[in-house]
Amino acid sequence: MYSKKKQFDRRYLLILAVVIIALVLVVLSVALKKDRNLNFFERFAKDTGMIVLKVAYSPFNFVKEQIAEMQEKDNLYEKYKELKEKEDEMDSLQAENDNLRNEVNNLKESLDLNSILSDKVLLNATVVNRNIGYWYEEVTVDKGSKDGIEENMAVITSKGLIGSVSKVSSHSSSVKLLSNENMSDKISVKIRVNDDQYVFGLISGYTAKNNTYTVEGISENVDIPKGADVVTTGMGSMFPSGIQVGTVTKVTTDNFDLSKVVKVKSSVDFNDIDYVTVLKREA
């Protein structure tokens, strides 16, 4: 009796399972049809599912937003620290710059320097004329008074000093070269003896054959090494301090054996001058 009942229950469960599977297949076949409208129960189930998903995900979204906000705050704080450090560096550099400016002004006063290179505004110009008969005496450039050029302004190239402005018209200027053998103005220069010592002298002439200047008036009893740098001193009203002139090639003494005579190889090739820079006085 018990075995028959158990067998009946299995048949009942089997039939029920077949019916449920059939109903699921029918529902799926209807649901998979294209271009059909959802019935009430389907819409209800879909909307309910979306609400449940939103409610379930809301804590995760909240945590995610909080983490993102904290990361953004950390990034902003790091940027703030970087800007603060740069601001502190700028304050330090400004203070250092002010201190250096004061030192330069004091140095100019103590050495009677009328100008230094940093006081000048650079104006580039092109050589437009050079007379073969006066090849080593002057050149003409394409900038004039309209560009702010005045007489006696220093003129350089990328290699060093070449001369000064001698004549000015509206749109061009003549530059008197240091290679001019009839140079009347003696130029004050200083020769670097060692890291912190200079000797001072005057350029008294130029020799085109070997492109060298003659520097005289050095009375200091010091050894001047070959290859020593020679630059302008800034004394006088024409050439600012620190412009490269050349390097020492030979050292002798004058006829009376009282002062040294130094031969200085020019840093500029006066046969090859196409572009120059005029050192305008800063307004």
Helix content: 25-40%
Low-confidence stretches: none
Q: Tally the helices: what do you get? A: 2
Q: What kind of oligomer do you see?
A: single chain
What's the N-to-C terminus distance?
Answer: 124 Å
DSSP strand count: 12
Strand order of the largest sheet: 1-2-5-4-3-12
What's the order of the H and E elements? Answer: HHEEEEEEEEEEEE
Biggest β-sheet description: 6 strands, antiparallel, barrel
Q: Which whole number gives the mean pLDDT?
A: 78
* Percent in strands: 25-35%
CATH topology of the domain at 118-283: Thrombin, subunit H
Task: Tell me the CATH superfamily of the domain at 118-283.
Answer: Rod shape-determining protein MreC, domain 1
Silhouette: elongated
Q: Give Rg in angstroms.
A: 45 Å
Name of the CATH first level of the domain at 118-283: Mainly Beta
- The CATH architecture designation of the domain at 118-283 is Beta Barrel
Would you tell me the structural class of the helices and strands? alpha+beta
Characterise the protein shown here.
The chain is α+β, with helices and mostly antiparallel strands. The protein has a domain at 118-283: Rod shape-determining protein MreC, domain 1 (Thrombin, subunit H). The protein is built from two helices and twelve strands. The protein has a six-stranded antiparallel beta barrel. The protein has a six-stranded antiparallel beta barrel with strand order 6-7-8-11-10-9.
